[in-house]
Structure formats: C-alpha cells, structure tokens
Amino acid sequence: MKQMLLQCRIALSVIAVYTLIAACAACPALSAAPSAPANPAAKTLAERKDLFDKVSAITGIPWYNLAAIDQYERTMNLAKKRPIRDGALIAIYYPEAEWVGYLNPDHEDQNVRSIAFFGGRGKDGSGDGLANRNNDMDALYTMADYILSFGTNRDDFSIGLWEYYQNSRSVERIQQFSAIYAAFDSLDLSRHAFPLPLNAEYAYRSTWGASRGWGGFRIHEGTDLFANHGVPVRSTCYGIIEEMGWNPYGGWRIGIRDLNGTYHYFAHLSGFSKQVKTGDVLKPGQVIGWVGSSGYGKPGTQGKFPPHLHYGMYRDSGLAEWSFDPYPHLRRWEREEERAPIKSLKDK
After folding, report:
1. pLDDT tens sequence across 158-175
2. How many other CB atoms are there within 10 angstroms of residue 86's CB atom?
C-alpha cells in the first residue's frame, strides 16, 4: 500500500514538471529573457538605406544620389516649415496638387491613370497599383523616375535637378551631399567634433552678436576661441570644403558645408593643411589648418589681434543664408567628445 502511494506521488510530480515545461514553452516571456530593443535611430537609417538600394536597383541611379535628394528635402522641410509625416522614412515633399495634377478635382487621387491624365507627378513605386504621396516608396520612386528621364550620367543628373528645382543653389547642395555619402558609403554621418583638440589650452565664451567696427559697423557672426598660435584646427563635421582662401575680414579661412546644409566657417588661420583642398570631403576631427591671427587687411596681414579661431555657423534656407549662435553647439560637441573621444571613431 505504501509503495503504491509512493508511486502515485512520483507520477504526479512528473506530470507537474511536464506541465510546467509546457507552460514555459508556450510563454516566450517566461522561457527567455527579453532581448534589448534595437537603436531606433540606427533602425530608421537601415530602413531608409534599404529604400534607396531598392529604387537604385530599379532605376540605376546611385543610392547616394537618391540619399542626397532626400536629405536636401529634409533640410528644406525644416527651413520652410513644411509638414512632415509622422514615421516617414523619406522627406521628399509633394503638394497635393502637384502630385495628382493641378486640374484634378480629386486632391486625394491615387489612381495612376487619372493622375497621369491630369499631368500629376505621382507614380506607383511600391507595386500596389496606387500612387500614394504618403507612401515612402512611391514618393522616392516618383522623384527618381523624373530625374532618370534626363539620362543616367553625372551631367544628366545635374540637368534633372535644375529642371526640377530651378535653383542653382539646390543643385549645388545635392551634389555636395551626394559626394559626402559616396565618400563614406553610409547614412550614419551625424557625429561632430570640437574644432580644437581638447588637450590644447583654449578659452571661449558666447560672443555672437557683439559689435565689430573694422570695415564698418557689423555684428560678430560667430564665437572666438582663443588659443596659442599653431594649435590644430579641426573639421567639426562630416562635410565638404566649399570655400578656402583669403577673406579681408577672416584672413585665411575655410568654409565647410555639412549634410544639414549648415555652413561652418573657420577664420583667422595661420595656414591650411596640405592634405585638404576645395571640394575635399572631410570627417569630424580631421585637421584643416592652425590657429593664427590673419585678417583685417590685404592677403597675408597678420597680428592685428591675439591669435584665435573665429568659428561661425550659417543656416541655408534654399535661397539665402543667415548666421546663428554656434556657442551652444560648441559646448555640446565639447561634452560629447569628453565622453567619447574622436580618435575612437572608426575611419568611415
């Protein structure tokens, strides 16, 4: 009798164990620890790059040209305060009337044939039979198809951009963005660097907007970073050298355009690095010159003020540029580099 009771208890224990195992298998939350969520920004960039690759495969337009158009549109969306779709991967913007055709009575038309009949731009890029301006694939393919209609080589690309934007500044920006993306083969190019090495002796404060008198009354369009003569000056961003040479006010100066359309201005240099020239693509932390005291006169004028770097930032609206205070950005980049030194970045 005791032996039978023991056997029953063993049997019940075995059944309970198998029941627990089955319950765990049916409930993933109990059977395994939850995986860490992916970096949302990295996920967005990967999905955006996938769209560029798909449309590039269809049209033959290099992905970095498509990325450059999209990024230019993104900067214009911010500058012109155009509506941005929640969760959109692509920033290319089409007004309703332009998408469906200006004479189309249905401003929400998604029928490919009727859109074409009314002269609208909208195309079906996703293959679902609809031309939806809120569909990332449709918007990107529509732009690519228009550019492709002018040809496939570099000059054809420039002509297509001009015909679409009717603005030489737009064409230049997109060509610059394309060169940057092509050089680094990546969309993840948002890192910045402080313009001076953090181990150098330097001092700066917010001086944007202060009055200046040389050459006539004007405001100071930047921040002065005082440092010893010859301290290396570094690129603050992934960008392309737009201007390089002498300026009566800024002396030996370099201007770098980044992927946000922002112009980074480095002035009063003592000289330029022999490794850089106009049109070169740069990465954050790359040496472009050295602190000096050039400017306020004809080429070669030196020593009218203590050695320092004048650093300015200018925002592009598509038609004009204006200066804004770089001091908050400098402080942020300085702190970021203290946490993650620029030398630890991979050479992309």
Report:
1. 999 999 999 999 999 999
2. 4
Listed range (74-83, 143-152, 306-315, 319-328) with the worst mean pLDDT: 74-83
Find the helix or strand (DSSP H, E) in which 288 lies.
strand 287-291
We report the CATH number of the domain holding residue 318 as 2.70.70.10
- Quote the distance between the C-alpha of residue 222 and its chain's center: 22
Assign 320 a pLDDT band (cuts: 50, 70, 90): confident
Amino acid at 246: W
Spatial neighbors of 337 by CB under 8 A, at least 6 apart, are 193, 194, 198
Residue 302 dihedral angles phi and psi, to the nearest 5°: -135, 155
Q: At 221, is the pLDDT very low, low, confident or very high (cuts 50, 70, 90)?
A: confident
Domain final residue, candidates 118, 150, 184: 184
Report if residue 307 sits inside a domain. yes
Assigned token pair, 69: 């158009």
Q: Where does residue 261 fall: left (phi above 0), alpha (psi -120 to 50 degrees), or beta otherwise? A: left
- What digits encode the pLDDT tens for the residues 285-298? 999 999 999 998 89
Instruction: Could you list the beta-strand ranges (E) of 87-222.
Output: 202-204, 211-212, 218-219
Q: Do 233 and 163 fall within a single domain?
A: no
Considering only CA atoms, which of 304, 302, 292, 299 is closest in space to residue 212? 304
* Token output for 3: 């032996």
How high is the pLDDT of residue 106? 96
Q: Which domain range does residue 306 map to?
A: 202-344
Domain boundary among 184, 212, 235: 184
Q: How confident is the model at residue 38 (pLDDT cuts 50, 70, 90)?
A: low
Q: The whole model's pTM is what?
A: 0.84
For residue 123, report the phi and psi dihedrals to the nearest 5 degrees. Answer: -130, 160
Q: Among residues 199, 209, 224, which one has the least CA distance to residue 306?
A: 224
Neighbours of 206 (CB within 10 A): 14
